[in-house]
Amino acid sequence: MKENTINDSQADMQTDKSEWLEENNCPMTNALKIIGGKWKLLLLNSISKECPARFGELRKKMQDITHATLTLQLRELERDGIIERKAYAEAPPKVEYKLTTLGQTLIPIIRALCDWGEAYKSHQQKAGACTV
């Protein structure tokens, strides 16, 4: 006769699934899905400072980013409602990016991160100066 019990591997699978659900419903995880990565916060910072920002200007400011990666990151931010793209019918093509109302709510967060980065840099310089 077969018992109706959960074996160890089934229990592990259920635990993994509940952890995955909890992790993916976490506000921090949701935020990082939208603005996480190497370039998005840098792009948002640039766009917030020079709004609207043109593609070429963004490319010049972030020389290490490839054309394809810049395009992808901008498209993802646009898809997620953080920036809006405006294309002008002229030659050569002109495209501008600006923060949406939702994107503007990130400005205090970006500023706080910049302030923290400055404080950390200062802390590291002081710590390095004390080293003998």
UniProtKB/TrEMBL annotation:
Q: What is this protein called?
A: Helix-turn-helix domain-containing protein
Keyword list (alphabetical) reads: DNA-binding, Transcription, Transcription regulation
Q: Which PROSITE patterns match?
A: HTH_HXLR (PS51118)
Per its UniProt record, what InterPro entries does this chain match? HTH_HxlR, WH-like_DNA-bd_sf, WH_DNA-bd_sf
Under the heading SUPFAM superfamilies, the entry gives:
Winged helix' DNA-binding domain
Domain HTH hxlR-type, chain residue ranges per copy: 26-125
